[in-house]
Amino acid sequence: MKLSVDLSEQETSIESLFAALTAADKYVDLDLSGCTGLTEWGAYTDAGKVVSLVLPDTVTKIAESPFSAPTFASFASLETLTAKGVKTVGDYAFYRHAALTSISMPSATAIEAGAFQNCAALASVSLPAAETIGTGA
After folding, report:
1. pLDDT in tens, 67-98
2. What would the pLDDT profile of 100-123 be if each residue is shown by its tens digit?
3. How far is CA 74 from the centre of its chain?
4. What pTM was computed for the model?
5. How would you class 9 by CB atoms within 10 Å of its CB: exposed for 0-12, middle for 13-18, buried for 19 or more?
6. E strands, 1-137, in order
7. Residues 6 or more apart in contact with residue 36 via CB below 8 angstroms
8. Could you give the residue ranges of the DSSP H alpha helices within the chain?
């Protein structure tokens, strides 16, 4: 089933979604491609049950973060990410992500410092439009 949600009014609705998944104790492949109004992907909590994530095409940036608190830190089970609209991946966004095996970001042009640093399981990366890749990325 595809999820279609307007997140433009209240970003906490995505937090509610993650909390519901945690409470249900279900691991999921989450396709948010039908969502509207979301342009930047930030750090969220309670996302540990998401195994596969498809971001909406409206998301053009994955927020930067300190390496001590990566943007995707709460996505402990995330193995695959597809983000067709993302142009920029911020500093340390996926730093030390242990489960991540595959990333596809066909529009990403800027990969900031440490973005994928120490992602030991990362085996497949598709960044065909990348123009700049930061130190340690």
Report:
1. 899 999 999 999 999 999 999 999 999 999 99
2. 999 999 999 999 999 999 999 999
3. 10
4. 0.88
5. exposed
6. 28-31, 40-41, 50-54, 61-62, 80-82, 88-89, 102-104, 110-111, 124-126, 132-133
7. 5, 6, 7, 8, 56, 58
8. 12-24
Taking residues 42-58, what's their average pLDDT?
Answer: 93
Domain that holds residue 78: 1-137
Whether the pLDDT of residue 124 is over 50: the answer is yes
Q: What is the pLDDT of residue 8?
A: 54
CATH code of the domain covering residue 81: 3.80.10
How many folded domains does the chain comprise?
1
The tokens of 69 are what?
């608190």
pLDDT confidence tier of residue 17, bands split at 50, 70 and 90: confident
Cα of 93 vs its chain's centroid, Å = 8
Measured in whole angstroms, how far is the alpha carbon of residue 101 from the centre of its chain? 13
